[in-house]
Amino acid sequence: MSEVQELIVNMGPQHPSTHGVLRLIVHLDGEVVTKVVPDLGYLHRGLEKLAENKTYAQFLPVTDRLDYLAAISNNLAYCLAVEKLLGLNVPKRASYIRVVLAELTRIVSHLVWLATHALDLGAFTPFLYCFRERELLLDIFESYCGSRLTTTAFRIGGVPKDIDNNIRQKIEEFINIFPSKLNEYESLLTNNKIWLERTMNVGVISAADAINYSLSGPCLRGSGVEWDIRRTEPYCVYNELDFSIPTGRGIGDTYDRYLVRLEEMKQSNGIVKQALEKMPEGKLMADDPRVVPPTKDKVNTTIESLIHHFHIMSEGFNPPIGEVYQSIEAPKGELGFYIISDGSPKPYRMKIRTPSFANLQVIGKMCENNTMVADVVAIVGTLDIVLGEIDR
Amino acid sequence: MSKQEIIETIKAKFAGVIEEVDDTLDLTVRIKKDGILDVCRFIHDTEGLDFDYLTDICGVDYPERQPRFDVVYHLYSIDKKHRIRIKAAIGENESISSVESVWKAANWFEREAYDMLGIMFDNHSDLRRILLPEDWKGHPLRKDYPLVTNVGEKWLEEKLRTHVPV
């Protein structure tokens, strides 16, 4: 007598292809997936609660720990949100520096995605290639702000450090060689038969469904929706820069999202190049003594500046009562900060809208229609999730 | 559509439901909680408004206020490229209608609001905790929940004590 039984497989939270501590409960009928139930929260650190107990400046380093592969994007979104609340005008040069670093971060994030995604699907060489280039970029971040991952690269009101000739030279060297490196990745994957078999028509999501499930970033553009916050609601100086928004072939499968991310790296490279050329001279921090502390040399030489610095650092500043929502196009999608201020130096409530959280939700939908168990790995990879910003 | 036109269109249909409109920084509309599903469906379906993208749902706790919580919806229109924030106040033992039937994405956002603040949603398909363990006590983003506690350690001790290996 034979009995047909559903097989339930527990994938994660310590599984190499879940890209962090994601746990998936996969229901199988033979090799076909019938249902996928994600279980989150293994990396929950209560960052939103923590935000309510820190001053605005103190919370800035914590934002590095959201999407730890693209810390600079998190810093940017947070600084822009607080600046919107305060009504601060950031100097032009600082905005250009922010754009340069944010776009380099996009490349870093996409490189890690490509490396791990290809590794999950059995291609080992792209992993080595991508991490080789990522190393160059992390060196640039290190020479700019002293750290490679948890950067805290910006400050509320501007940037702490200028892009000097040394760093500029490093960046220019990188953007000159990077297009040829992109060709290397493409030559390994884009027309590779195994890659095509593993990615084409896997994890298909239609444009209407993608919008209804609140996908954003490359996951949404892969379905053919041309929506990029850098274009529709330009922040920093994106309205002065020329770039295109790739949307893939319009099928919405894993291969489309691969094409979109590759093209985005190319576009980011172009944006960095333009931004370096157009970057004007000028100040690095906004002119507002309520928020911006005096420079270090003044702090070291005059008692007034020392007191001023101490005052801002220890007590913080009091933004006006109100609430703001500010979002940016982070490498993974729409990253938004919703801050409610009650006029005190600490936020009353801060909600962080992270792209990975919304993007992961679609996994159940993507695994419909006779998805094989091996394709779950491809789907987790194509969503490009980081558990740091899902669990917060 | 300008902010003013958006407000006019919603007001024309839901005059009795809207309590307050504020457009100093972002356009914000406060509505009565019973009207949330109707308003959401209307602004999702109506041509010209087309709020087809649910950016976020979150809860806010005001312990001194009656009713105690706010549920905040951030909406966007991919086509028309405008944003709106909708707020509805809800008391401690009350519940609010889920908007999952309008935007599928609401599922997890509402689960998070339930997990973090204990806000109950009616007609939600799967209202469970999402980030914290199923048997966790309390809702950490409430203002009366302390920042530093030993709840976590106690929970873990209990688990280790009662855990039976399979």
From TrEMBL, chain A:
Pfam families listed in its UniProt record: Complex1_49kDa
Q: What is its EC number?
A: 7.1.1.-
- Give the record's keywords alphabetically: Cell membrane, Membrane, NAD, Oxidoreductase, Quinone, Translocase, Transport, Ubiquinone
Which positions fall inside the NADH-quinone oxidoreductase subunit D domain? 120-392
- Report a single Gene Ontology molecular function: NAD binding
User: Do you know which PROSITE patterns this protein is assigned to?
Assistant: COMPLEX1_49K
InterPro entries assigned to the protein according to its UniProt record, in alphabetical order = NADH_Q_OxRdtase_suD, NADH_UbQ_OxRdtase_49kDa_CS, NDH1_su_D/H, NiFe-Hase_large
Per the record's keyword annotation, is Translocase included, yes or no?
yes
Recorded hits in SUPFAM superfamilies, A to Z, give: HydB/Nqo4-like
Q: What is its main location?
A: membrane
State a GO cellular component annotated for this protein: plasma membrane
Q: Which reaction does it catalyse?
A: a quinone + NADH + 5 H(+)(in) = a quinol + NAD(+) + 4 H(+)(out)
Origin: domain of life: Bacteria
Topology relative to the membrane, per the entry?
Peripheral membrane protein
Where found?
A: Cell membrane
Q: What does this protein do?
A: NDH-1 shuttles electrons from NADH, via FMN and iron-sulfur (Fe-S) centers, to quinones in the respiratory chain. The immediate electron acceptor for the enzyme in this species is believed to be ubiquinone. Couples the redox reaction to proton translocation (for every two electrons transferred, four hydrogen ions are translocated across the cytoplasmic membrane), and thus conserves the redox energy in a proton gradient.
Family per similarity comment: Belongs to the complex I 49 kDa subunit family.
Instruction: Summarize the subunit comment.
Output: NDH-1 is composed of 14 different subunits. Subunits NuoB, C, D, E, F, and G constitute the peripheral sector of the complex.
Protein name as annotated: NADH-quinone oxidoreductase subunit D
From TrEMBL, chain B:
Q: Name one GO molecular function term.
A: NADH dehydrogenase (ubiquinone) activity
Q: Which reaction does it catalyse?
A: a quinone + NADH + 5 H(+)(in) = a quinol + NAD(+) + 4 H(+)(out)
Does Transport count among this protein's keywords? yes
What's the chief localization of this chain?
Answer: membrane
Domain (NADH:ubiquinone oxidoreductase 30kDa subunit): give its ranges.
Answer: 29-148
Q: Which InterPro entries match?
A: NADH_DH_suC, NADH_quin_OxRdtase_su_C/D-like, NADH_UbQ_OxRdtase_30kDa_su, NADH_UbQ_OxRdtase_CS
Membrane topology qualifier = Peripheral membrane protein
A Pfam short name = Complex1_30kDa
Show the SUPFAM superfamilies listed in the entry: Nqo5-like (SSF143243)
Q: Where in the cell is it found?
A: Cell membrane
What's its EC?
7.1.1.-
List the keywords (alphabetical). Cell membrane, Membrane, NAD, Quinone, Translocase, Transport, Ubiquinone
User: What's a GO cellular component annotated to this UniProt protein?
Assistant: plasma membrane
Q: How does it assemble?
A: NDH-1 is composed of 14 different subunits. Subunits NuoB, C, D, E, F, and G constitute the peripheral sector of the complex.
Q: What does this protein do?
A: NDH-1 shuttles electrons from NADH, via FMN and iron-sulfur (Fe-S) centers, to quinones in the respiratory chain. The immediate electron acceptor for the enzyme in this species is believed to be ubiquinone. Couples the redox reaction to proton translocation (for every two electrons transferred, four hydrogen ions are translocated across the cytoplasmic membrane), and thus conserves the redox energy in a proton gradient.
Recorded family membership: Belongs to the complex I 30 kDa subunit family.
Q: What is this protein called?
A: NADH-quinone oxidoreductase subunit C
Give the organism, scientific name: Candidatus Desantisbacteria bacterium CG23_combo_of_CG06-09_8_20_14_all_40_23
